[in-house]
């Protein structure tokens, strides 16, 4: 079992929870502030990669809720696991490197399907094709 730290008797998570419970109004204000900051960052990045317009580069769809960043070539570009905010910040700090584009989710999924971008997705199609071939031959 872990020893208790005399200087910090509570863990960081416990302190955060206590602060949230003690300061509900400040917590809500902070949450709203962070949400707005993320949205503004997303707008800047998607606008840049949407060729100066916050819209899908293929179909001009403009609803921010369905717009996302796409790797033009799946083998090029930085990949981040976790929050998209990290990727957006990285792109902005590094002067918007090439290799990304703004797509709506429909165009994103169509591209993934046409280019077999998801290996497991490709494998599923390959297996289905093999299974139907076996059934046709039997």
Question: Keywords, please?
Answer:
138 residues; mainly alpha; 5 helices
Q: Mind describing the biggest β-sheet?
A: 2 strands, antiparallel
**Largest sheet, spatial ordering of strands:** 1-2
Q: Provide the number of structural domains.
A: 1
Over all CA atoms, what is the radius of gyration? 22 Å
Average of the residue pLDDT scores: 83
Explain the overall architecture.
By secondary structure, the protein is mainly α. It has one domain (13-137). Helix content is 56%, strand content 7%. The protein contains 5 helices and 2 strands; from the N terminus they run ααβαβαα. The chain has helices spanning 12-22, 24-49, 84-93, 105-115, 119-137, and strands spanning 67-71, 100-104. It has a two-stranded antiparallel sheet. Helix 2 packs across helix 3. The longest helix is centred in the N-terminal third of the chain and has 26 residues, at 24-49. The termini are far apart. The model has no long low-confidence stretch (mean pLDDT 83).
């Amino acid at each position: 079992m872990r020893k208790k730290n005399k200087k910090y008797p509570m863990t960081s998570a416990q302190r955060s929870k206590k602060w949230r419970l003690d300061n509900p109004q400040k917590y809500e204000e902070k949450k709203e502030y962070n949400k707005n900051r993320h949205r503004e960052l997303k707008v800047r990045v998607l606008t840049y990669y949407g060729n100066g317009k916050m819209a899908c580069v293929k179909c001009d769809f403009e609803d921010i809720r369905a717009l996302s960043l796409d790797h033009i070539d799946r083998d090029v570009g930085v990949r981040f696991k976790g929050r998209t905010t990290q990727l957006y910040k990285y792109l902005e700090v590094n002067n918007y490197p090439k290799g990304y584009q703004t797509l709506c989710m429909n165009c994103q999924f169509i591209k993934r399907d046409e280019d077999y971008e998801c290996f497991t997705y490709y494998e599923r199609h390959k297996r289905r094709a093999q299974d139907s071939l076996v059934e046709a031959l039997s």
